[in-house]
Amino acid sequence: MAGRRARTGRGWDASPPRAGEAASTPRPRRGRPDGSGSGSTGFGGGAEPGVTGAESAPPRDPAEAARREAELAREICLRQLAVRPRTRAELAGALTRRGISEEVAASVLDRYDEVGMIDDAAFARAWVSSRHAGRGLARRALANELRQRGVAGEVAGEALDALDEETEAQTARALVDRKLRTARGEPDAVFRRLVGMLARKGYPAGVAIRAVKDALAAQSAEAAEFADAIDADALADAEGEPDR
Description:
The chain starts with 52 loop residues before the first helix and ends in a 5-residue tail after the last helix. α2 (62-83) packs across α4 (102-114) and α8 crosses α10. It is built from twelve helices and no strands. It is mainly alpha-helical.
């Protein structure tokens, strides 16, 4: 029809879009029913600004929370004890690192004390026996290790009393004899290395020097001559360390 305008408007009589032409009508934005909260994912989607999920959740019953914390504490302790025996201080440290409260930790550890799952005295005795036999450690080194593991001084002292001077001297001599089988060098150099080895294992200067001197004296004529010239007592005094 001549003079009739083409339907190019945007109203009811607008022409449909041609093939390949995107519709120009903007898509509605999703949000809450009141239109606020642009960028949310649906009705009620998204938390209120500044409110985390934990804060918005209803608080748990305090008794239930304490029960669950105690269960976690027991689980942590059992896992630790499954690896090796532990002192009370070691277990307390593990619980603290996992965020267990002091009150709950004390309650769980007290119970483990009662049933014998924690026994610092037994731990100290076993530690002294094992580490002396296996590593040749002397009283001083063992006392330091027990202190690092939170064993009280009195408890550690009772365990260390089982390691007398004679046993310590015999162990020092056995360590030196074993090292001498592969030692190389002049007697004076060997002497210094072996005394240093015993010192690192916690042996007093007098015990270490006498053990190395006696071992060298039995090794060879040259080593015996060197050993005869060693004044063990004078050297120990020079080190400033008593035998105990």
